[in-house]
Design brief:
With about 500 residues, this protein is mostly beta strands. About 5% of the residues lie in helices and about 50% in strands. It contains 1 helix and 31 strands. Strands 22, 23, 24, 25, 26, 27, 28, 29, 30 and 31 form a 10-stranded antiparallel beta sheet that branches. The chain has a 5-stranded mixed beta sheet with strand order 4-3-2-1-19. The longest helix is centred in the N-terminal third of the chain and has 13 residues, at about 1-15. The structure holds beta-D-fructofuranose.
């Protein structure tokens, strides 16, 4: 318990050191220090809870704790004291996991106890097991029977060092969990376990496996049903790009298929979830009104040491998104609750852009801006939108209207590190048009193309917050519609 008390006292002493102005307007950041994966995203007693991989004492990764917030609308988040610290002899870090509300009204967390230690002969040993903690939405007690899933619950040949990130849910009164594990072929597999009470688990089957086709080890699995399909979301490590797909070395893929009550999953398609530089370890929950809501870590491991100077916190979560199926594909759009915070509407319809222009009232660093390019009413081949710009800096989105490729470039966003700054992805015009919706915040931009067919998430830590301009440029002429709101929280 000492480690949790220490973390909570540290939070109490330092929370006020970070002013609201130093944080994003509507994105979740760690209370202090470092965050990575979202954990325990769940609806419990009338509130949504989000926990996260947390190291309060520095803006870099360290022995993992769980930080904690709640919300009722995904926009305003209430700080709660750290929920878990690595204080048992079976763990040196409380790694990723998830949470559910049980029938008897407790909040049940399942997480990975990651243990690194030296054996008697001086070897470094890593063991990952799954553990339970139960609580009331603020305080959590680790189950005395922990760990509940160990090496004996892994199929033959699976690694006991790479066995983590349980995602738990309840279906027809039974608890299920999916975890990732390194299979004997040295790539990821997803294990399904079930339980009558959430504490005693048994192995059901290997639900899906990488077979060295999509990256190497997998992390952070999720499973949910959507309409008549089943969706597995997982984060492959060390992925190889194919054409313009899967360019983030650590990626998130959505595997859509069918799956009966026997949990035999049949794969139908595998796609990138987000094309951005900063998107990993996505996790979903079901909202009170039955929507499937996803958030993710808006950062990538490769650039996670490239922090802004004097950072008091580091990393964010993406703004939560509603997931739906459209023509067999997952589409994602910002949760509708954001609409309650949209103010100062500015609209332009059929505005002709020729060369470069700015539109009065269209700017902002806490904004929701939708731009529709009317491809049919134009001879424009190359259209560019500059966001978060001033005379010196910008992030640009180049739309090649003929080849249907968007090139995102943050190379001139003020960046002070040699990190990936350019990426391309394909889109499809709809009756000649393309719709681009930007969620802009002080340190990030998320783009949604054609009502959520594609998404692109990224951080722009080094762009001064005063760089709020939005500019348009067309190589010839094009008509555009623009609808812009400030997000005021
Ligand atoms: C993914 C991950 C998880 C692990 C956690 C540790 O980003 O590597 O697999 O549980 O982060 O912080």
């Amino acid at each position: 318990m000492d480690k949790l008390i220490r973390a909570r006292e540290y939070e109490k002493a330092h929370l006020a050191d970070i002013s609201a102005e130093e944080r994003p307007v509507y994105h979740v950041t760690p209370a202090l220090g470092w965050m990575n994966d979202p954990n325990g995203f769940s609806y419990y007693k009338g509130k949504y809870h989000i926990f996260y991989q947390y190291y309060p004492y520095a803006t870099k990764w360290g022995p993992m704790h769980w930080g904690h917030y709640t919300t009722t609308d995904f926009v305003r988040w209430e700080f709660l004291p750290a929920a878990l610290a690595p204080d048992e002899d079976y763990e040196s870090g409380c790694y990723s996991g998830s949470a559910v509300e049980t029938v008897d009204g407790t909040h049940l967390i399942m997480y990975t106890a990651h243990l690194e230690r030296k054996t008697e002969d001086g070897e470094n040993q890593i063991i990952e097991t799954q553990c339970i903690a139960s609580g009331d939405g603020i305080d959590y007690v680790k189950y005395e029977g922990n760990p509940v899933l160990t090496a004996k619950d892994i199929p033959k040949g699976g690694s006991k060092a790479d066995f983590r990130d349980p995602k738990i849910w309840i279906e027809n009164g039974i608890y299920y969990s999916v975890t990732v594990n390194m299979a004997p072929d040295q790539s990821g597999q997803i294990l399904l376990h079930s339980s009558e009470d959430g504490y005693h688990w048994k192995f059901v089957r290997v639900l899906e496996a990488c077979r060295n086709e999509y990256g190497e080890m997998w992390e952070c699995p999720d499973f949910f049903r959507l309409e008549d399909k089943a969706v597995i979301m997982v984060s492959p490590m060390h992925m190889k790009a194919r054409d313009l797909e899967f360019h983030s070395g650590h990626n998130v893929i959505g595997i859509i298929g069918t799956c009966g009550d026997d949990f035999k999953f049949t794969r139908e398609s595998v796609r990138n979830i987000d094309y951005g530089f900063d998107f990993y370890a996505a996790q979903t929950t079901e909202s009170a009104d039955g929507r499937r809501i996803m958030t993710a870590w808006m950062q990538c491991w490769e650039s996670s040491n490239c922090q802004p100077a004097h950072a008091k916190w580091f990393s964010m979560l993406t703004f939560p998104r509603e997931l739906n199926l459209y023509e067999g594909k997952l589409i994602q759009n910002p949760v509708r609750e954001l609409e309650g915070y949209r103010k100062n509407r500015v609209v332009y319809t059929g505005y002709t852009v020729e060369g470069e222009c700015e539109l009065e009232g269209v700017s902002g660093r806490s904004a929701d801006v939708e731009v529709t390019l009317k491809g049919d009413e134009s001879d424009c081949k190359e259209f560019v939108i500059y966001v978060a710009s001033n005379e010196e800096v910008h992030t640009s989105f180049h739309c090649d209207m003929e080849r249907e490729i968007i090139t995102v470039d943050r190379g001139r966003s003020g960046i002070r590190h040699d990190i990936v700054c350019q990426r391309q992805f394909r889109f499809e015009k709809k009756n000649g048009d393309v719709k681009l919706r930007f969620l802009i915040d002080r340190f990030s931009i998320e783009l949604f193309v054609n009502d959520g067919e594609q998404a692109f998430s990224m951080c722009i830590y080094d762009t001064p917050v005063s760089a709020a301009g939005i500019r348009f440029a067309a190589d010839k002429t094009i008509k555009i519609d623009v609808e812009k709101y400030d997000i005021i929280v």
